[in-house]
Amino acid sequence: MSTIKNHVQLIGNVGQEPTITNLESGKKVARFSLATNEYYKDSKGEKQTDTNWHTIVAWGKTAEIVEKYVQKGKEVGISGKLKTRSYTTDDNEQRYVTEVVADEILLLGTKGDK
After folding, report:
1. For 52-90, how does the pLDDT look when each residue is reduced to its tens digit (9 = 90+)?
2. What backbone phi and psi angles, to 5 degrees, belong to 70?
3. d(CA 84, CA 72)
């Protein structure tokens, strides 16, 4: 059970072109947003969509896969963990960011997708 303490699995669509950064150490990091949709019917019986946005971060080999194959609009599956970090703004305000650090990326959709 210890392997599921901090485990996230998401399937969604990439919201923007991934940003790839090459670090001085030679390691790559990829960042992109992922939209997940939940569908339900409201009190009138009409279909509604609730969209949640997630920030995805991938390192090393996973970032290289993102760089080669992941584009805006593509459906992907993500497996990873939640990571929260904090930073201080120029106005001296403390901010917190929660991201999904991807260990695995599954490319979904049809073979003909760009």
Report:
1. 999 999 999 999 999 999 999 999 999 999 999 999 999
2. -105, 125
3. 25
What counts of helices (H) and strands (E) characterise the chain?
Answer: 1, 6
Phi, psi of 20, deg, nearest 5: -110, 130
Nearest to 105 by CA among 72, 43, 73, 61: 61
Instruction: Locate all alpha helices (DSSP H) within 1-114, ordered by sequence.
Output: 60-69
Contact 66, 14 (CB under 8 A): no
**Residue 70, Cβ neighbours under 10 Å: how many?**
20
What is d(CA 83, CA 2) in angstroms, rounded to the nearest whole number?
17
